[in-house]
Amino acid sequence: MKKTLISIVNVIIIAFILIFVVFYSRYENKEFYLRQIENFENTTVTMEQVTENYLEGEQRICDVWAKYINSNLMSMEEAVEYIRASHVLKNTSAHIIWVDSRIGLSTRPRLGTNDDYDISYQRLDILGDVSWIDKIGNSINITRAYTNPMNGEQSLAFCNNITVYDNESKSYKDAVLMRVIPISDLEQKWVFPQSELVNAELSMIDVNGDYIIKGYNFKNSSFFEFYKSYNSTDPEKSKKLFDKITSSTGSVSMFNSHKQECVLAYTPISSTSGWTMLSLVPAKDLKIGKGNWVLFGVVSAGLLVLFLSDLFYMLYMNKHLKITANKAESANKAKTDFLSTMSHDIRTPMNAIVGLTTIAEKNTGDVESTKDSLRKISLASNHLLTLINDILDISKVESGNLKLSPVSFSIVETVENLVNISQPIIKEKNIEFSFHINHMEKEYLYTDQLRLNQIYINILSNAIKYTEPGGRVSVELREEIGAVPDQVKLTYIVADTGIGMSPEFMETMYMPFSRQVDSRVNSIQGTGLGLAITKQMVELIGGTIDCQSEQGKGTIFTVELDIPVADRQREDMQLEPIDILIVDDDEITIETATDMLESLGATVEHAHSGLVALGMIEHRHLEGRGYSVIIVDWKMPEIDGVETIRRIRSEIETTVPILLISAYDWSDIEEKAKEAGADGFITKPLFKSTLYDKINSLIGKESGSVEPEDDYSDLQGLNILVAEDNDINWEIISSILAMFGITSERAENGRICVDMISKAKEGSYTLIFMDIQMPEMNGLDATRTIRKLENSWASSIPIVAMTADAFSENIMECMNAGMNGHIAKPIDVKLVIKEIRRIKEGR
Q1: Neighbours of 239 (CB within 10 A)
Q2: Residue 542, SS3?
Q3: How many other CB atoms sit within 10 Å of the CB of residue 170?
């Protein structure tokens, strides 16, 4: 009876599980289909990014040409000859046409001729009003698809404005440079990475639904007409759907011309105006091909075996399986926790990049503001790249193999980068923030700028991260006389009112992955690597780091570094005799700013509040000897800086130039400040050169002192062999080298590189830039082959890897193959020039 009952119970349990499996499988099938649609949407977004990167790369080449032509004052014929010698892609061409007449020259002859280079766009008005073409390097300027009048191919054109000499009118005239790319080249970039999407196809439409590039499944001349032809809809629903498709990312189910259910994914192409990418795939390709019967049978057999097995043996096995599973889960969780918590260090510069990008987009009409934002984005990007390299290659931290790459740099840029990266979190947490500098006389120093940035940013970001909302963070940077000549001692002090650290944790805080055990700390993201990396970098530079902390009261970090002074410095900074009023409630700011301005030759008065300043300004105004410049802090008691400026303009009615200064992000009050009458903005801390340049700009005087410029005359006439199989990468590096007076030749793969160097005359090339991943023969094998050549000059020529393989083991592999250096992609122009000079001086 007991056995029968157990059997009945087992059968009921098995039946219940099988029924559950059937229904759950149906549910999973549906969920799987929805996940596949989401993956298809993500793939479409990825393909859009691939397309956008391609468009940006092509535009960059057009920008380089335009910049070179504008810089060298060429005639149209000379410009065409320069481009004809520069581009190497057989399917591309360039057209230069006059803005007024729409006629000009092509770099390639008309189809069927050998010497007809004349071209006319008079009947093909694809440019219209050329004012839509933005300045060089600011945006992608691209036409819609059109028929190339020289060869009849459907093409797109990347444009930029240039000025060239007209031999007929004997004057310089405006023209348009067009880099013409066949649409067939763009179509070749579109290959879906997933094998299950073999039937998927890509298309592009403009805001009206007209095809720019049409997939083979689409009919009609417009996608909107095609959709209405084969799908039931009404005008109102159609309009809503089409508006959604051309303005957002998502997917929709529809029927194609064969009445086959399909999934249409769409996403805007952000680098163009109103273009949308469409991906169409049959719905059956995204569904599970197999039915539930296989699963049903397998589960049935498994359940039968399970219930016939010895209960106690299964319990024993389950116990050990559970232990193993827990170990695996713990290991996986540790890895997941590390990958998720390290996001803080990456988010810090990313916040700055995103915020500055928004500012740049908002101020596209303000060239100086946009250039300033782009420069700051570049600084934050370099810091982000350093972070990623350190996080991905943890062995550098564990083995102490961090190495310095010293360069001449401006400490002003470093401080600006520090403040800009920190501002978003300061604003989010509403932290009281101050930054003071003291006796900063040498603005150009010589050390590893990226490592110095990382030291300063790690310490400041920790202070901000562990300070609760409403708290206070202060920074002091001062310059003192160094221990040896031509050096300065930089003392960097960061104090906060945060949660502090326990004495026990402070004993191990510089160990990798160590974090204080605290409920407040556990909710804050971080890798536990920041202080470990910081301490190693401080010691590598030859400095010291000290910490004082008390739980619940805050922390003070002090870093002292002896840094060599760069050879170049700004000289002759001297203002004409002017009277300046500083309005700030911070005594330290008033003291340091007064010292700087007086050293520049200005007469300085100060006020500790806006109301006191109003009285001083009105008194001087009535006496007829008003101030030349007024500098006002934003955040002050009684009335803030914006209100002070508004009262100066409305109550005293003076036109004296007024600068608004702040240690905070003033983007939110920029418009309000300008409306109140502010003439400019400066971010604290104040540097002598910044004040000098800004004041001269406000009073309409040209600065007598300028930023020191690099001399590249030593690079003129060098010739470099570049082994690179990617056409875009080759055109970019060759154009960059040409900007420094360096000529270059290309080898499309390692085999060709070996042949060229074998046949070259001695001294033909200064060095070889060698890509690693190439067809026929990769860069490592090519290097090994070159090192075995009988010609002593060829076998010993310097070879520098230029590759995206940037891990330490990749670098070691290059060195072992016989290379002399390594440059990681994306390429840093400064590192390229530095490596060329190192090789050149070492030969």
Answers
A1: 12
A2: coil
A3: 7
Q: How far is CA 541 from CA 492, 493, 510, in A?
A: 14, 17, 17
Contact of 418 with 453, CB cutoff 8 Å: yes
Domains contained in the chain, CATH given: 33-304 (no CATH), 343-564 (3.30.565.10), 579-698 (3.40.50.2300), 713-842 (3.40.50.2300)
**How many angstroms separate the CA atoms of 189 and 570, rounded?**
49
Per DSSP, 664 falls in state S
Residue 135 has pLDDT above 80, yes or no: yes
Taking the C-alpha atoms of residue 638 and residue 614, their distance in angstroms, rounded to an integer, is: 12
Q: 620: which 2 tokens?
A: 């001087």
Q: How far apart are alpha carbons 664 and 432 in whole angstroms?
A: 9
**pTM assigned to the model:** 0.48
If phi > 0 it is left, if psi is from -120 to 50 it is alpha, else beta; for residue 137 that is left
DSSP string, 318-375: HHHHHHHHHHHHHHHHHHHHHHHHTHHHHHHHHHHHHHHHHHHHHTTT-HHHHHHHHH
Provide the token pair at 686.
């104040």
Residue-wise pLDDT for 210-267, tens only, equals: 887 777 777 777 888 888 888 988 888 888 889 899 889 999 999 988 888 999 999 9
Which tokens in the block code for residue 428? Answer: 């989010």
* Residues contacting 561, CB < 8 A, separation 6+: 447, 452, 455, 489, 490, 492, 538, 541, 542, 543
Q: Are 523 and 589 in contact (CB under 8 A)?
A: no
Can you tell me the distance from the alpha carbon of 446 to that of 407, in angstroms, rounded to the nearest whole number? 5
